[in-house]
Amino acid sequence: MIPFEYHAPATVGDAVAMLAARDGAKLLAGGQSLVPALTYRLARPGVLVDINALPLADVVRTNGHVRLGALVRHHVLEESPDVRRWCPLLAEAVAYVGNARVRTLGTLGGSLAHADPAAELPVAMVALDARFAAVGAAGSREIPAGEFFRAPLTTALAADEILTAVDVPVTRGAGTAFVELARRPGDFPLVSVAAVVAVDRAGRVADARVVFGGLAGAPQRSAPAEDALRGHEPTPERIAAAAHAARRALRPETDVFASGAYRAHLAEVLARRALRTATNRALTVEVR
Amino acid sequence: MSGAPDRPDLIGQRIPRHDARDKVTATIAYAADWAMPGMLHAVVVRSPYPSAQIRRLDAARASAMPGVVAILTAKDVPHNTLATDVPGQTTTVGPLRAHLHVLAEDRVRYQGEPVALVAAETLEQARAAAEAVEVDYEPLPGVFDTATALAPGAPRVHEAGNLLAEWRIARGDVAAALAGAAVVIDGEYETSFVDSGYIEPEAGVAWIDGDGVVTIRLATQVIEHYRDVAEVLGVPQNRVRVIGTYVGGGFGGKEDVTVEVYLGLLAWKTRRPVKMVWTRQESLLSRAKRHPYRLRYRTGASRSGEIVAQQVEIVGDSGAYAYLSALVLLYSTVTAAGPYRVPNVAVHARVAYTNNPPTSAMRGFGAMQVVFGYESQMDRVGAALGLDPVHVREVNALRRGDTLPVGQVIETHVALPVLARRAWDSLGEPTPPRAPHVRVGRGLACNLQPYGRIVWLHDWSSAWVGFEMDGSLVVRCGAPDVGGGQASSLCQIAAGVLGVPLARVSVHISDSALTPLSGTTTASRQLYMSGNATLKAARELREQVLGVAASMLGVAAIELDLVEGEVRARDGRTLALKDVLAGCARASVPRSRLAVYHAPAGEPIGFMKVGGPDMAPHTPQTLAHGPAEPGRGSGKVFPDYTFGAHAAEVEVDTETGVVRILKYVAAHDVGRAINPTSVEGQIQGGVVQGLGYGLLEEVLLDEGVNQTTSFASYLIPAAGDVPDVQPIVCESGEGLGPYGARGIGEPPIGPPAAAIANAIAAATGARLARLPMTGERVLRALGALDGKDG
Amino acid sequence: MIVRFTLNGRPREVETEPHRTLLDVLRDTLGQLEAKEGCAEGACGACTVLLDGRPASSCLTLVPLVEGRRVTTVRGLERDGRLHPLQESFVAHGAVQCGFCTPGVLLTALWYVEKNPGADREQIRQALGGNLCRCTGYTKIVDAIEAWSRRATAEAGP
Fold first, then answer.
1. CA atoms of C9 and B765, how far apart (whole Å)
2. A262–B790 C-beta distance less than 8 A
3. Which one of A2, A99, A102, A183 would you mutate to disrupt binding with C, by most C Cβ within 10 Å of its Cβ?
């Protein structure tokens, strides 16, 4: 590891000021992606701003939202009764993240801001239409999840901005499901799918969101799948047609681990499975 | 004069290993746990290119950096050529002489090839300086697969051409037998590059000890590499000492030299202690891999399922240097027809140089890849004839007295039919599929694996067993312990023979200067060889001690027994062991014994060397041999073989292609289980490596550039990926090791890939012919995916 | 910088630098060699420690993050020179071969089973997913953990 200048500010304002003042400064949260890059000398920041002392580790239920601090650790997300009850998709997705050790130190904000195209939490956040709170030298702003992820390892955050919290709308009257397939469980998936399905009193799909991970540089919403479902009864045939429609719109690339064709195939299979599970959960919610 | 026969009370006991307590408390000092005062830290500068000319190498800037003590390049190495033909052996292998440069001179042939060494006061300084070593590479065309390498006009990896070695076996008339066969099955199979993947990276510390002895403490399977270090340094062999640590996994990857030559050079040049620990990325990048094979089988069988002919073509990828490729290929050639009686056999095996990472020893050593071929073929023969998988193996299994295609007579019992039946039946009731898109099926695969080294290497091992005056026992043996319980079994054997409680035994291993040399911990040979040496030493010591006791008691030694730390006479009298040992001292009888065990030796069979008489570095060796002929050797290649049969039940998700193993049973005739817990551990561990080979593991290369240099991309099985492995330990008592033990280190890794492929075929009808059997490949075999293979 | 934490129940104060990992500090500063480096990227689990009772990769833990925390290594499991029953179980069941992964596996297993008494074999396997072992094939490791878990659950009473 190459030595760096180290700061541990106590306030968000101080942290932002440090980011603004120094080119190439990096934030340290849980370090689960950053530290290996430092160890193998792939990342060589001159300044490291450790934000672990910032008061951003709370899970708070507000009106219609769960507000998650950027420093909420994965295991807290996984075990939080509020998250399980109000945003079950997140609890389901975070259980796929890494292994027990990654979940001890890894943070929500770190995972989102790192923006690995195969990571689970960005996919779930886009599916849940979460809003990201960022603070920078120019002030605070909110960024919709759908606009946050730009490309592999690239987000809408400016160089002097810090992601401080995520507001996740509570899931009401909808069923959700997160499904993925990795070469080996615990590793980054080849494909992941998050599905959110709301069913109206007539038994028709009132709203649906289908989001894929691992297929492109950022999470991909599937309008064709959502359109195929909306307003229709979620029969197995309709779900299969939606999953197929999703696949036809996807053009995943081939890499050393899987061909684009296999990824597209998996996307359809996993979308079908996720939509079935989400629909079943939606119907159970309705019954209750 | 001889005592009553020793009673091997401890043999077959599930005794906790002597090193287990130290390992659960983490008090064992592995190679990287060692430090010396004033120690330097060293790193290797490696080529980023798989094929390039080195135009210029300038270390001036790097040498001037803070903390840098030495930077060595090829011109600083006294003798820059390293023999890699047969690690640790004291006999040569005739024409098999493989060499490489310690540090690259003007040419690099694979990504990761060592170019320079840097030693500095701190590891950070060494890494920074390594980055600052300026090397101008001119990339050259390379070859990255064997078909291209062997085609006319291919770029040459080495001057003399890309064909490294070639073996042939011809027995009977294959063409006629195939013409008359009831069924002929053609199959092509492809196996992958895989890595040993031990959790402990390569590591060591070297220093100059008293009398100028270059002393290197490292993780190795072969302490005899001290000779190689001496050759490179140009010093007498008695001026280099290798101390082997308890090793954090070897599997063949710590058989060839790793850090010892670099450490020896740096300590020699700097006169200071030096430490080198490879990173995981470096280990995955540069360590020799398992040879990927292309196998082509044509198998003929009679209507009743008897195999009448096997025609086999093998092409292996040696990567950029020879290492042990010619011998790995020999193992494949000898075992290519499997553990079966086949009257007509033709094997043609070649191994070629490419600009891929070098390949060399890995658990199973060439006898492993071919199992995927011959057992897939056996299954297809059975399916074509409508025969039960166990039946096909029973009909064809080798028996004692049969002759292998190479001409070697099988001299010990072959339990194959029993093993196959027991493994298959132990799967129990079939598991119903849990969902409509899931299919469940079962597969069987058998194998034979040599244990002990090739007989013309004249293998030997020695052990030294001695009593202290208080009756406690010391075993000294050069054998490295790589985690298989090598040292522990020696304690168990010596303690049993000499009637000493295990708690009163200590064992010193793996030191080229202070323990008698025992050869390599490879080739499933250490229990066999060093177990026999220890047994011999312990029995001879027992005779010495009982002889003295006999004089003291005035009885014949045959009247005496040595148990629980005392000598007992048949008439009821006893002598405390320490009194007998005092008696030994008075009678000038030694209280220790050094014994050497020599394996059955033989001469090379039917060797024909094709090529020049001077095997210069990197000259291809084309070797061929046929079946034994009068005057051309006995046909014996290996001392003996271990047989096994594995049965798997798998489920296949026909939508994703993902295969999950539901049940796994592995049966082996181990001859005699000295410690059943250790034997089971070898079987279970070998099986899971084999499952990784079958389903998960693959070194992925893009034009020779490794894409899988981390444990996040090179995937070895985790606990959740594999089932419980049920071992079935059969004991024929017919092995050549102590008490009839056979080698069991390597055999269990052979069958899993084939057992899974056969189970997938049973479940779905799809035949997988390429490893690893990823979800994508399974889907393609099912015809559920279009497009090019990824 | 100075970092203070508790190591195996003992308060420690180390003078170090912020670019050191907990693994560096344990091994190079404190001479606690029981945490092993297998990959330096959090993938193998050989460097596992418990951080406030939860498993963490000490190779991925920059040392400033340890300030004020409780660190447990495998050397913290023994009591009065006696092995922890889980360690005994590993010895008795032959769950140790080369031993390089063993400290990390022990700590992950301890954390998981204490949190989930009565966990079955499949759950134990899933919990160990981040601790790679290349020697044992895992069966005897699971045997050892399950046996200890059963005994501990039985001793705890209904």
1. 59
2. yes
3. A99
Hey, what amino acid is at B331?
Answer: Y
Residue-range domain boundaries for chain B: 20-27+460-598, 34-140+202-277, 164-195+289-454+604-781
Whether B224 and B520 have beta carbons less than 8 Å apart is answered as yes
Residue A159 lies in domain: 59-169
| Contact C118/B at CB under 8 A | no
Q: Do C75 and B26 touch (CB under 8 A)?
A: yes
CA-CA distance, A162 to A20, in Å (whole number)?
11
Say yes or no to pLDDT of B566 above 80: yes
> At a CB cut-off of 8 Å and minimum separation 6, what does C98 contact?
B198, B199, B200, B246, B247, B248, B249, B482, B483, C134, C135
Q: Dig out the tokens for A127 from the structure.
A: 């599916």
Question: Pairing between strand B608-610 and B622-624?
Answer: antiparallel
Q: Which of B124, B715, B776 sits opposite A184 (nearest CB)?
A: B715
Distance from CA of A80 to the nearest CA of C (A): 16
Q: How far apart are CA C140 and CA B19, in angstroms?
A: 16
Euclidean distance between CA atoms B542 and B554, whole angstroms: 17
- The residues near B445 (Cβ < 8 Å, ≥ 6 apart) are B371, B375, B379, B645, B646, B750, B751, B752, B753, B754, B755, B758
| CA-based nearest residue in chain A for residue C21 | A35
Cis preceding linkage at B620, omega within 30: no
Distances (CA, A) of B325 to B114, B167, B290, B329, B615: 20, 12, 10, 6, 15
The beta-strand segments (E) located in B431-489 are 438-451, 460-467, 473-477
CB contact (8 A) between residue C45 and residue A38:
no
Q: Lowest mean pLDDT of A52-56, B91-95, B144-148, B204-208, name the range.
A: B91-95
Q: Does B650 score more than 90 pLDDT? A: yes
User: Where do the domains of chain C lie?
Assistant: 2-76, 85-156
pLDDT in the model for residue B83 = 83
The number of beta carbons lying within 10 Å of the beta carbon of residue B576 is 12
Structural domain C2-76, CATH architecture: Roll (3.10)
Beta-carbon neighbour count of residue A201 at 10 Å?
8
Distances (CA, A) of B160 to A240, B145, B155, B617: 60, 18, 11, 10
Tell me how crowded residue B307 is: count the other CB atoms within 10 A of its CB. 27
Q: Is A99 on the interface with C (CB under 8 A)?
A: yes
Q: Are strands A25-28 and A47-50 parallel, antiparallel or unpaired?
A: parallel
Residue B615 has pLDDT above 60, yes or no: no
Q: Write down the CATH superfamily of domain C85-156.
A: [2Fe-2S]-binding domain (1.10.150.120)
Pick the CATH number of B164-195+289-454+604-781 from 3.30.830.10, 3.30.200.20, 3.30.365.10, 1.20.1250.20: 3.30.365.10
Q: Tell me which residue in C37, C92, C122 faces B16 most closely, judged by beta carbons.
A: C92
Letter for the amino acid at B254? K
Question: Which helix (DSSP H) or strand (DSSP E) does residue B366 occupy?
Answer: none
Question: Does the CB of B436 have a partner CB in chain A at under 8 Å?
Answer: no
**What digits encode the pLDDT tens for the residues A104-154?**
999 999 999 999 999 999 999 999 999 999 999 999 999 999 999 999 999
Q: Is there a contact between A4 and C18 if contact means CB atoms under 8 Å apart?
A: yes
Per-residue DSSP letters for A80-111? Answer: -HHHHHH-HHHHHHHTTSS-HHHHHH-BHHHH
CATH number of B20-27+460-598: 3.30.365.10
Residue range B568-599, pLDDT digits in tens:
999 999 999 999 999 999 999 999 999 999 99
Query: Which of B281, B700, B718 is opposite residue A40, by nearest beta carbon?
Result: B281
Answer yes or no: do A40 and B786 touch at CB < 8 A.
Answer: no
- Is C82 in the B-facing interface, judged by CB distances under 8 Å? no
